[in-house]
Design goal:
The complex is a heterodimer of chains A (about 575) and B (about 230). Chain A has about 575 residues and is an alpha+beta fold. Chain A has three domains: about 200 residues, Beta-Lactamase (2-Layer Sandwich), CATH 3.30.450; about 90 residues, Orthogonal Bundle (Helix Hairpins), CATH 1.10.287; about 220 residues, Heat Shock Protein 90 (2-Layer Sandwich), CATH 3.30.565. Chain A is built from 15 helices and twelve strands. In chain A, strand 1 and strand 2 form a beta hairpin. The longest helix of chain A is centred in the first third of the chain and has 65 residues. The C terminus of chain A is likely disordered. Chain B is of the alpha/beta class and about 230 residues long. Chain B folds into two domains: about 120 residues, Response regulator (Rossmann fold, 3-Layer(aba) Sandwich), CATH 3.40.50; about 100 residues, Arc Repressor Mutant, subunit A, CATH 1.10.10. Chain B is built from eight helices and twelve strands. In chain B, the strands form three sheets. Chain B has a five-stranded parallel β-sheet with strand order 2-1-3-4-5, sandwiched between helices. A four-stranded antiparallel β-sheet of chain B has the order 6-7-8-9, with helices on one face. A three-stranded antiparallel β-sheet of chain B has the order 10-12-11. Chain B is globular. The chains are: A alpha+beta (about 575), B alpha/beta (about 230). At the A-B interface, helix 5, helix 6, strand 6, helix 7 and helix 8 of A face helix 1, strand 10 and helix 7 of B.
């Protein structure tokens, strides 16, 4: 039960999980694509703007400062110009390269530690120093070129241009750290936004799952209640969605089922009452006939030999009819649930002996029953069970029938079967009995559960069982008949349908065992012959009473008193 | 019982009445039959039967009512004919004062055995007497007095008291009492004992709801406490 509950929770969980996963995937995709596009657009815009501003400033500054220099400026002038240019608001370093009057190469940098020609990529130097042919659409021989570099992982913009007329070459070197940190913080924000979106989606999915799953769970609960037999289970229908539609379908299905079951149970009730009434009605004439048949029987010997067999036939068949009606009434009582238990303290050995004795079976039965097993049960019902089991064994198996009475402690038997030693036979019998049970299987399970709970709750000896085995030496029960031996009117062999009793005996025996909370199992013995095993739980309260000193004195008394 | 037992049979169904009359007569009883409760009570006034065999289901006043009316004035034994042994009929019948019951369809031999067993209960089997508190049981006269007044006990109640008084202070199980008093086989109905004990207590105890004489021994049966 707990396992099933856990399983169902897991199943619900997996649906919930799926919903959350889908929601999260959608949110993730949306957030990532939006942030990605936003990031790339932003990055492009930020970089382009910063770059253009720097390069434009550099171009203007170059024209202003370097343009005024002579073609071959002295080194110190060049240095001054570089420093002036670097003082711009754009905050870049400048490197100016020119040949002075002596033809010496002079490189003036605004900050020698930061920017030398080493930082300028060779490709850029080449592009800057390469004159372009003048033509339409290209009115200058030299252009401003730029490139982004990242020495040591830090982004820089390097730009370069050559003054017209073979003037000095100027390079600029601007750090893009500020832009990078801007972009980084943007990326962080976008990442956090994505994460938040993801969490929001998960929460939303959770909520959505709950709103979907709660009705589903209600539906599941209702279906389970319906399965447990509460046919009046209905769902409250609210809204117009698919779940409401499903609820409506469920309700109409439950209604139809209820109607159908009521119809069936009404019909069953009617037929049951008919059988009960009929057997009751049969009883009145039967009583009159039975009263007279005894008179006839006693006179039979004195009758005409032609008439005597007829009278005997009437007598025996009347008796059979009486038994049949009696059994029918017993069965209807069980079906109607009006059969009652009239429990009393009984010495089982005495009961079995008396049962065998009254039916004159003493010679045909080997009894192995220790005296002193006193159990609280309905003596009449135990007698019915024993008479049916032993009678059946005598009929099909022939004498001698062996009847064994013993008690079994449930807890002890269970631990023995766990050990696997002495308990093996018990375990085997239990397994076989389960397959034999057939129709009564559910009830047996119930009884087992009940006795188990008794064993758990009581003290020592609680959960003990009275076990009565009735074994014969006959041909045994064919495997295909075994599951049906307790069925009503089941005849193993069509040819021996007659004179085999009412066909209700074993079924009544089983019902009588059930009403005690016990059961009967049928099996074939490995050494041949059939064995029927009656198991009745011994109520734990009975054990306290047997400790009473009065109780021990009592059973030995009647012989003394009678004589 | 030297003379032929004289029975009053009250049964509404003609066939059963005729059949039982026939069978019981063959068993050696003298039988007077009545078809209704009213007729039965009338017969009872006219004649003096040893025992009444009474069907529960009767038109007009039913068997229980007949039983109650008889018990108001008379302690003669009554055997009920009931439809089912599990029924509430049995309990009601025993509470209204019946001594025993037989379930239909009735086998005359069984009914005869019950009749004879009930009639035997009134027979004297000892000549001593015993007293338990205010109760004096005179086994020779087959009478019981309480504070000197005669108690009206049915033969069954008397026999039950006699059997209990033979073993003062000792618990007797219901099955034992069924064998001793009712002469039933091992399948006797313990409700017979319970009902009879209730009726007996109502007559002999000072406060029937808290019995001082006939004690219930839980899980065993009943016990007559010896005089204190």
């Amino acid at each position: 039960m707990r396992f099933r509950a856990a399983l169902s929770r897991l199943r619900f969980g997996s649906l919930r999980l799926r919903l959350v996963a889908v929601f999260a995937a959608v949110a993730l995709t949306a957030a990532v694509s939006v942030s990605g596009i936003a990031y790339w657009l932003n990055r492009d815009a930020v970089l382009t703007r910063a770059q253009n501003a720097a390069l434009n400033d550099f171009r203007a500054s170059m024209t202003r400062n370097v343009g005024s220099l002579p073609v071959n400026p002295p080194c110190d002038e060049l240095q001054e110009a570089a420093n002036r240019m670097a003082a711009s608001t754009q905050n870049y370093q400048v490197l100016l390269i020119a040949k002075d009057g002596n033809g010496n190469e002079c490189a003036a940098t605004s900050d020698r530690d930061v920017f030398t020609l080493d930082q300028v990529p060779a490709a850029l130097q080449k592009a800057v120093n390469k004159p372009r042919p003048l033509k339409d659409g290209n009115e200058a021989a030299y252009h401003l070129y730029w490139q982004r570099t990242a020495p040591g992982g830090r982004p820089f913009l390097v730009g370069g241009a050559k003054m017209m007329g073979n003037g000095p070459t100027g390079y600029m070197y601007k750090s893009l750290d500020a832009e990078r940190s801007d972009l980084n913080s943007l990326a962080w924000s976008l990442g956090i936004a994505t994460l938040l979106a993801l969490i929001g989606a998960a929460l939303l999915a959770q909520a959505a799952a709950s709103t979907v799953l709660r009705p589903v769970q209600r539906l599941g609960d209702a279906a389970r209640r319906l399965g447990e037999g509460h046919l009046d289970t209905r769902l409250r229908v609210s809204g117009t969605d698919e779940l409401a539609e499903l609820s409506r379908t469920f309700n109409s299905a439950a209604e139809a089922l209820q109607r159908r079951v009521e119809e069936l149970s009404d019909r069953e009730e009617a037929s049951r009452r008919f059988v009960a009434d009929m057997s009751h009605e049969l009883r009145t004439p039967l009583t009159a006939i039975t009263a007279v048949t005894e008179v006839l029987e006693e006179e039979a010997d004195a009758l005409d030999p032609m008439i005597e067999p007829a009278v005997r036939l009437v007598v025996t068949e009347t008796r059979r009819l009486g038994d049949l009606v009696e059994n029918l009434m017993e069965v209807t009582r069980f079906d109607a649930g009006t059969a009652k238990l009239r429990a009393d303290e009984v010495d089982v050995a005495d009961m079995v002996t008396a049962c065998i004795d009254t039916r004159a079976w003493l010679d045909a039965v080997e009894l192995d029953a220790p005296r002193g097993i006193v159990v609280r049960l309905d003596p009449r019902r135990l007698d019915v069970i024993l008479a049916n089991l032993i009678g059946n064994a005598l009929k099909h198996g022939g004498s001698p029938v062996r009847v064994t009475v013993r008690t079994e402690d449930h807890a002890a038997a269970r631990s023995a079967s766990v050990e696997g030693g002495g308990g093996r036979r018990e375990g085997g019998a239990a397994a076989r009995s389960a397959s034999v049970e057939g129709g009564g299987g559910r009830r047996e399970g119930h009884a087992a559960a009940r006795s188990a709970s008794v064993a758990g709750g009581g003290g020592p000896g609680a959960g003990a069982e009275l076990v009565v085995e009735v074994a014969d030496n006959g041909p045994g029960i064919p495997e295909d008949v075994l599951p049906h031996v307790f069925d009503r009117f089941y005849k193993a062999d069509a040819s021996r349908a007659r004179s085999e009793g009412s066909g209700l005996g074993l079924s009544i025996a089983m019902e009588n065992a059930h009403i005690h909370g016990g059961t009967i199992t049928a099996a074939n013995r490995p050494e041949g012959g059939a064995v029927f095993t009656l198991r009745l739980p011994i109520p734990p309260a009975e054990h306290h009473d047997s400790g009473d000193p009065c109780d021990h004195g009592a059973p030995n008394e009647p012989e003394e008193g009678r004589s | 019982m030297a003379c032929v037992p004289f029975l009053l049979l009250i049964e509404d169904d003609d066939a059963i009445r005729t059949g039982l009359e026939l069978a019981l007569s063959r068993q050696g009883h003298r039988v007077v039959a009545a078809a209704t409760g009213e007729e039965g009570l009338e017969r009872l006034r006219e004649q003096r039967p040893d025992l009444i065999v009474l069907d529960v289901m009767l038109p007009g006043i039913d068997g229980f009512e007949v039983c109650r009316r008889i018990r108001r004035t008379d302690q003669l034994p009554i055997i009920l004919l009931t439809a089912r042994s599990d029924d509430i009929d049995v309990v009601v019948g025993l509470e209204s004062g019946a001594d025993d019951y037989v379930v239909k369809p009735i086998q005359p031999r069984v009914l005869d055995a019950r009749i004879r067993a009930v009639l035997r209960r009134g027979e004297r089997d000892s000549t001593d007497s015993a007293s338990f508190g205010s109760i004096v049981i005179d086994r020779s006269a087959m009478t019981v007095t309480k504070d000197g007044n005669d108690l009206q006990l049915t033969p069954t109640e008397l026999r039950l008291l006699l059997e209990l008084s033979r073993r003062p202070g000792q618990a007797l199980s219901r099955q034992q009492l069924l064998r001793l008093v009712w002469e039933h086989d091992y399948l006797g109905d313990s409700r017979l004992v319970d009902a009879c004990v209730q009726r007996l207590r109502a007559k002999v105890e000072d406060v029937p709801s808290s019995p001082k004489l006939i004690r219930t021994v839980r899980g065993v049966g009943y016990r007559l406490d010896p005089p204190q």
